[in-house]
Amino acid sequence: MTEETDQSSQNEQTPALQPDPGALLTAAREARGVTVGEISRDMGLTESAVRDLEASQYDKFPAGIYVWGYLRNYCKLIELDEAPVLEGYFSLTGISQGIRDSERSKPKPAPGAGTAGLVVFILVILGLVGLAGYLVYTFLIA
């Protein structure tokens, strides 16, 4: 009985392994019959960069934020859910949740914020045109 308890407690303590993001990308790309060259062309990356993404060799990229963006774009391109790929990436690299939090916490523009600026701009232009018309009328008549 204690052996069963020991085994179950070991299973509970073992963290679930995240899937390899590169393997997920490769499998999805191959399932869709897309070549590395096509992905490379559509993403604007070299073929070796695409192979590095598929091999999960992220140290070949300048910064994690670039890899994060490449992975998201790759997923969109092959119509793959990005959540397991990004979770695997964050798990593999040990990158903190900061990138994910920063994406969620982007400030949203206030409703109508751009409209108010446009209205003020139009009013200023109309005022200047009116003033110019008044001055031209005053000096031409006088």
Query: Overall 3D geometry?
Result: elongated
Total strand segments: 0
The N- and C-terminal alpha carbons lie at a distance of 111 Å
What's the quaternary structure here? single chain
Count of individual domains: 2
- Please give the share of residues in helix: over 70%
Residue fraction in strands: under 5%
| Major sheet size, sense and barrel closure | none
CATH class of the largest domain: Mainly Alpha
Radius of gyration: 28 Å
Arithmetic mean of pLDDT: 76
- Give helix and strand order, one letter per element, not per position: HHHHHHHH
With helices defined by DSSP (H or I, 4 residues minimum), what is the helix count? 8
The secondary-structure class comes to: mainly alpha
Low-confidence stretches at least 5 residues in length (pLDDT < 50)? 4-15
Task: Tell me the name of the CATH homologous superfamily of the largest domain.
Answer: lambda repressor-like DNA-binding domains
Shape-level CATH architecture of the largest domain: Orthogonal Bundle
CATH topology of the largest domain: 434 Repressor (Amino-terminal Domain)
What can be said about this structure in brief?
The protein is mainly alpha-helical and 142 residues long. The protein has helices at residues 2-13, 21-31, 36-43, 47-54, 64-77, 82-93, 98-104, 113-141.
How would you characterize the overall build of this protein?
The protein is mostly helical. It folds into two domains: about 20-105, 434 Repressor (Amino-terminal Domain), CATH 1.10.260; about 110-140. It is about 70% helix and about 0% strand. The chain has eight helices and no strands. The protein has helices at about 1-15, 20-30, 35-45, 45-55, 65-75, 80-95, 100-105, 115-140. α3 (about 35-45) packs across α4 (about 45-55). It is elongated and about 85 Å long. The N and C termini lie far apart (about 110 Å). Mean pLDDT is about 75; it is low at about 5-15.
